[in-house]
Amino acid sequence: MRDALFARIEAKTAELVELTRDLIRIPTVNPPGDAYADCAQFIGERLRRRGFDVAYPRGEGTPGDSDRYPRTNVVARRAGGRPGPCVHFNGHIDVVEVGDGWTTPPFGGEVKDGKVFGRGACDMKGGIAASIIAVEAICEEFPEFAGVLEISGTVDEESGGYGGVAHLARQGFFTRPRVDHVIIPEPLNVDRVCLGHRGVWWAEIETYGRIAHGSMPFLGDSAIRHMAAVLEKFEREFYPYLATKRTTMPVAPDGARQSTMNINSIHGGLAEGFEGWPSAVVADSCRMVIDRRYLIEESYEEVRGEIVNLLEALRRERPGFRYDLRELWTVPPTMTDRNAAVVRAVAAEIERVLSRPAEFVISPGTYDHKHIVRIAGLKECIAYGPGILDLAHQPDEYVAIEDLVASAKVMAASALALMGSGQA
């Protein structure tokens, strides 16, 4: 039975490639959220014609939602001929900006050397296409399958997912007994099962000074120099300390198996983008945004407390040092149990299809897994899909056609196994 399913998917290879190209050609760039409704309708109409019930829940009131840029999602659902669990494939339809350095048309869906090129090819329209072909193959080969198949195309994953998966989770779309297992076709490499992600804590530090004439800085107090003291303390004390924090989580790549912190931006003194000659002033404010990624062995309280302690030490040591710390965003780390049914099913099919054992990994950054676990409380969730993680957000992004086909086979056979259909 599995051979028949795989043969059907192989026969649909050209269709899978064209579907990937069609999705790439819809420029769903986020921000601002272009063409979301067009892409959702494209997916929904295709699945409606194949017997799925389709809904278009909009993330009204979520960040970025407006009549010009509606946060339009699509959810398609089809029940089989017998009762059984629901397997849900969730993919985000938004892509990041194009950027420079492309040698192929970013939204052309060009095919060459066995690859489909374009923004979103890897992250993650190839994964969406593979999951659609997987469920269609099941419906064609086993029309009386047991259980329920569901596919969603959701928005805004690249900016937090609040208009997409988070909104749907709050509406009950990912809550049991409606859904039992979720597979997110993120590009973590075709032989990997991604069990979750590290935690994230974003914050803004602002230091304060006193404005004065730039020719007499001794009459003022430079907020930029105070921020320089923060940076010096980071370099001398905090980064070496983070390097000692290692995790048992199988984070890939290996450099992310420690705690990390990125300085996203620094702004101080004159506003950026001004034209003309700068004025001679001492900066009375300087702001820095930090992106702290943390491990399952750490707590939010510990992560925040480390920065507070560092700033408080500077306040005691450095005359005139004043600061504010504003939290911007936080998500705890998550890791699905390796013995979860969805993990075992996908890992087994990877080994069957690719003739090598599955690798278990944790993503260095967050993805929509966080909302399904945190809001919906559904722990039967993993990421698995085609594409090479390192290509995401890069110029000349691509997905290999052989990986599209292999992942579609893995997803289809895994879904049948999870639904208990017995056909595969």
From TrEMBL:
Residues 196-314 form the Peptidase M20 dimerisation domain. Keywords: Cobalt, Hydrolase, Metal-binding, Zinc. Pfam families: M20_dimer, Peptidase_M20. Its cofactor is Zn(2+); Co(2+). InterPro entries: ArgE/DapE, Bact_exopeptidase_dim_dom, Peptidase_M20, Peptidase_M20_dimer, Peptidase_M20A. GO terms for molecular function: hydrolase activity; metal ion binding. The keyword Transmembrane helix does not apply. PANTHER family: ACETYLORNITHINE DEACETYLASE, ARGE_DAPE-RELATED DEACYLASE. Belongs to the peptidase M20A family. This is Succinyl-diaminopimelate desuccinylase. It comes from Tepidamorphus gemmatus.
